[in-house]
Specification:
The chain has 242 residues and is α/β, with parallel strands linked by helices. The protein has a six-stranded parallel sheet. The chain has one domain: Alpha-Beta Horseshoe (Leucine-rich repeat, LRR (right-handed beta-alpha superhelix)), CATH 3.80.10. Helix 3 runs parallel beside helix 5, helix 5 packs parallel to helix 6 and helix 9 crosses helix 11. It is globular, with a radius of gyration of 19 Å. The protein is built from eleven helices and six strands. The C terminus is likely disordered. InterPro entries: LRR_dom_sf.
């Protein structure tokens, strides 16, 4: 298994030929691939799709990605081998969420774990990170709804560096949690992974602990010690005493 990370020290133009050679040579062995903050002067996503059929973790954080690459990524997640293989996708700070890309991504997430889909055709994605990506609150709620609908997805990161927007997101998601709890969906319809995914959305970077009422809403019937341990591992925040 190969974990490949591109260095920022060399120019993209100089690294282009080297990068392509590495993908061609090692592509089938690469399980984790990152181009964080890398300003490439060539189209990279189609090359990744072509040469890395076993890719499980992809990070395009901070990249300025052309529309053609965004469309190629969507196609691969819809019908290509990435749909069945890719577990984590990091788009933090990228410019991918534009126009139809976002709508198609949201629709894909909502339908990706439908019971009507054969297990071998289900969307494999478990973690999607979109920190620092600018989109409307309506879009935020659409993604949050996709998280509720997709029972396989465990984490969506929708936070930004804007504390005001994070606070609004927290308020809206807290309201959604109360509504879902009142309808008793959390008790019967959602697996533990989906419940943990809620916490990844509502938690803020400034939080040092989750409010005990929020935890009670989600985990009414789970041992409190195990809850604290699992939340800490899942949300990357410290949990207070409950």
């Amino acid at each position: 298994m190969v974990d490949m990370r591109c260095s920022l020290r060399a120019s993209a133009r100089k690294n282009g030929a080297v990068t392509m050679a590495l993908l061609t040579l090692l592509g089938r062995q690469i399980h984790s691939l990152g181009f964080d903050g890398f300003n490439l002067d060539f189209s990279i996503v189609p090359q990744i799709i072509q040469h890395c059929p076993n890719l499980q973790h992809l990070s395009l954080q901070g990249m300025d990605i052309p529309k053609s690459d965004a469309e190629a990524l969507l196609d691969a997640l819809q019908t290509g081998h990435l749909r069945k293989r890719l577990l984590t996708l990091n788009l933090n700070g990228s410019n991918l969420l534009r126009g139809s890309f976002l709508k198609q991504l949201t629709t894909m997430l909502k339908a990706g774990s439908s019971n009507s889909i054969r297990s071998e055709d289900r969307l494999a994605l478990r973690e999607l990170r979109l920190h620092g990506v600018e989109f409307s609150m309506e879009t935020t709620m659409a993604l949050a709804s996709a998280l509720l609908a997709n029972r396989d997805l465990q984490l969506i990161q929708l936070t930004t560096d804007d504390s005001y927007r994070n606070t609004n997101l927290y308020t809206l998601q807290n309201q959604k949690l109360r509504r879902v709890h009142d309808e008793q969906l959390l008790q019967h319809a959602l697996p533990m992974e989906a419940k943990l995914a809620f916490l990844s959305v509502v938690s803020l970077e400034s939080c040092t602990a989750l409010h005990r009422n929020l935890v009670t809403q989600i985990f009414q019937f789970v041992d409190s010690h195990d809850v604290c341990r699992v939340i800490a591992l899942t949300s990357n925040i410290n949990c207070g005493s409950y």
